[in-house]
Write a structure and sequence with these properties.
The protein is mainly alpha-helical and 152 residues long. 49% of the residues lie in helices and 9% in strands. α2 (19-26) packs across α3 and α6 packs across α7.
């Protein structure tokens, strides 16, 4: 599941909005909001981005993201030996080994190049198009540690 239904309902209530009011802001029906909040259906990534904007919350709050993921490419850590290493060979928790090794990023890139590089691989592993994956990465990467300072 992509949208964490409970996070949507909680964020909506925190903003003091009813399902009807959120629906009106998004130009959709109240029933659509209700179905998302019960987990019957899920909005697409572009709608999730609109919801996040309307509720004034980061997109990542609405996504069912794991607690730990690479702070450069957004890859979810799913197994051993995926973390990067400092120069003294100690493991770092925040970066994958493909993005960070020996105490430095493994390659220089822009956020846009990172999205172009990662979106096709992400699409291969998910039932999404490359464009949907690029859209999701475009919403997530600016919030990651590597990119956060460069975006502001």
């Amino acid at each position: 599941m992509i949208l964490l239904k409970d996070a949507l309902a909680q964020a909506r209530r925190e903003r003091g909005l009813t399902q009807e009011e959120l629906a009106a802001r998004l130009y959709i029906t109240r029933q659509a909001v209700s179905r998302w909040e019960t987990g019957a259906t899920e909005p697409g990534i572009d709608m999730i981005k609109l919801i996040a904007r309307e509720l004034e919350v980061p997109v990542m709050r609405l996504l069912d993201m794991p607690e730990h993921y690479c702070q450069s490419c957004g890859m979810m850590f799913t197994g051993p030996d995926q973390h990067g290493r400092e120069a003294d060979s100690t493991e770092v928790e925040d970066f994958c080994r493909w993005c960070y090794d020996q105490g430095a990023y493994t390659y220089e890139t822009t956020m846009e190049e990172m999205i172009e590089d990662c979106a096709p691989r992400m699409a291969q592993n998910m039932d999404w198009s490359v464009d949907e994956c690029a859209s999701l990465l475009g919403a997530i990467l600016p919030n990651l540690r590597r990119w956060n300072a460069t975006v502001k």
